[in-house]
Amino acid sequence: IIATIVMQSSHATLVLIITALSVHQLTYENALALAIGANVGTTITAVLGALSANVTGKRLALADVLFKVAAGIVFIVLMQPIIGLVDVIASLIGLAEDDYTLKLAVFHTVFNLAGVIIMVPLINPLIALVTRLFKSAPDKTAHPKYLNEAALEFADTALEALRKETSRIYQKAIGVIAKGLSLDSRDILSDINMKEVIRAHDKAVEFDIDDVYEHEIKSLSSAILDFTNRLNVEPEVARQISRIRLANQSILIALKDVKHLQKNMLRYINSDNPHISAEYNRLRQRIAKVIRRLEIIRNEEQAGTSILSLDSL
After folding, report:
1. What does the alpha-carbon distance between residue 313 and residue 291 come to, in Å, rounded to a whole number?
2. How many CB atoms lie within 10 A of CB 75?
3. Cα(268)–Cα(249) distance, rounded to whole angstroms?
4. Most exposed among 196, 230, 261, 302, judged by the fewest C-beta atoms under 10 Å?
5. Rounded to two decimals, what is the model's pTM?
6. What pLDDT digit, counting tens, does each position of 238-251 carry?
7. How far apart are CA 190 and CA 257, in angstroms?
């Protein structure tokens, strides 16, 4: 096992074993035991590869280790019966009784075949075990809720699906923008006086806009773009779709602008210079007021198209 770990090659170890066996430096039984160790030791390659692999790679490496260790234990326990089996196979294929080097090759073949036979019935339990030990990270990526094949069949349903999905992006974006300003979207959208909201959040709070954008905004925006590219509609409907795409583009631009603004806000909201701090708080207040007004418009409009005017506002 140690030799295989050092060389990271069971083949190299087997060559050494065969060479030592051929010059009578090893007994036949010891050579067989070393061959088992070589097979078990080669799992180090999979283990080293798994260190930088994803969850699936780690599961595969563990399965390889369990497979070879289990086969090794079975063969060590049943060494004498297996030696008898190798002798039978050797006689059937015409090998001399004292041709231990070729018998070793037969043993190695039997080891691998028997390992497969042993583990095939245990595949499902093995999968369950490695899956339980290496759990996948939860998928944080947002997926479209309204964009589906059925919505593509009619222009009206496609437009409605696009509006609803755009509204989802807008709502997520409002939360991101609020946190980027070190504010709470619930306070912004409430009836609390905006000056009081700003005073209540007078400390800069770091927030990873890029992470939320990548997992919750970008995927939905890309889905909307793909969905609109698949539509073949009349010019009037195409103009409405163009407005929806423009609204989505405006949301993305707003997020990127807040990302750049956040860097300075984190630095100057708590500035020792009261004038700089006051200016940045006024800027936060103005942006928050725009968000509140947009929400009022959205609530007043029954058609749900006010979100499409985000770019003009």
Report:
1. 10
2. 23
3. 29
4. 302
5. 0.56
6. 888 889 889 989 99
7. 24
